[in-house]
Amino acid sequence: MNNVKVLLFYKYVNIENPVEFKKKHLLECEDLGLLGRILIAKEGINGSVSGTRGQTENYKQILKKDKRFSDIEFKEDDAIMPPFKKIVIKVKSEIIKFQQDVDLNSKGKHISSEEFLDLYNSGEDVVILDARNEYEWQVGKFKNAVTLPIENFTEFPKAVEKLEKLKDKKVVMYCTGGIRCEKASAYLIQEGFKDVSQLHGGILTFGKKYPDSVWEGTCFVFDKRLKSDINMKSGPITKCRHCKTKCDQYRNCRVPECNDLFVICPNCDIKFQGCCSKECWKKIIIQSNKIQN
Ligand SMILES: [Zn+2]
Ligand SMILES: [Zn+2]
Fold it and tell me: Which of 105, 164, 192, 237 is the most core-located residue (most Cβ within 10 A)?
């Protein structure tokens, strides 16, 4: 039974006093008993929260009552277990770290999931650009998408230097929920890209509407689940690091000094006790022997 609701949302809007807003908002979230992680900056809000249907519905109402967020959009997902342990709200300098000044007034135009799918079917010469990190597109991406070898969104501008030849092409970019494309598309335009648009609502919105179409694999998400259960039936495109069977479940290596993010199948997760390699596994075995002796 999926009775946990997960909300994902963001809005770029001027928040005059983020510290003040954080205090008030934290109390509201605590009163609701909501779990999650929310970032607040002068440029807006970015969050993911979870709770029962009642709690998340109430949360939506509370946020929308504030006129700065009256038109905020929520992406919704179901989960079996709450993907957060507590509620954390942080004040940051950016709601998504990019470290690059961009003019959000001249960003790529939004296109709907429907228009996005039409582009695929039209056969038009268009570049589908994935704005996400390598560990995200490794487990899933849109067909024929151009991907970037980046580990962090702040590396996006550097990676764009290699896309010089795409400047005159029609570029449609996407990310998980849309927040990164707002900045990334503005950056591309600033760099002289002539025709840039972005998938409105990102992969999560598209996946709800058109599962089993032009998406391959799964969708990485930044909470304990590490992947969204949105209904995409194409099957995994990655393999277990240990036994090489096809699967798409990430985990962090159990050895704290390692903490490597890697793909592992359920069998190997048990066999190797959540370790990324035989070396790390040995450390765990030695440790547990010490405790027993
Ligand atoms: Zn395996
Ligand atoms: Zn390891």
Answer: 237
Q: Is 44 left (phi over 0), alpha (psi -120 to 50) or beta?
A: left
Say how many Å lie between the CA of residue 38 and the centre of ligand 2.
29
- CA–centroid distance, residue 260 to ligand 2 (Å): 6
Report CA(147)–ligand 2 centroid distance (Å). Answer: 26
Residue 268 known to be catalytic: no
Read off the CATH number of the domain in which 41 is found.
3.30.70.100
pTM of the entire predicted model: 0.86
pLDDT per residue as tens digits for the range 73-112: 999 988 888 899 999 999 999 999 999 999 999 999 999 9
Residue 204 shares a structural domain with residue 116: yes
Residues 131 and 204 in one domain: yes
What are the strands, taking DSSP E only, across 143-264?
170-174, 195-199, 215-217, 250-252, 261-263
Give per-residue pLDDT as tens, 109-139. 999 999 999 999 998 999 999 999 999 999 9
The CATH number assigned to the domain holding 172 equals 3.40.250.10
Catalytic-labelled residue, pool 29, 175, 181, 276: 175
204 & 153 share domain? yes
Amino acid in the structure at residue 245: T
| Domain assignment of residue 84, yes or no | yes
Q: Which ligand is nearest to the CA of 257?
A: 2
* Ligand with the closest atom to the CA of 282: 2
Distance of CA 211 to the CA centre of its chain: 17
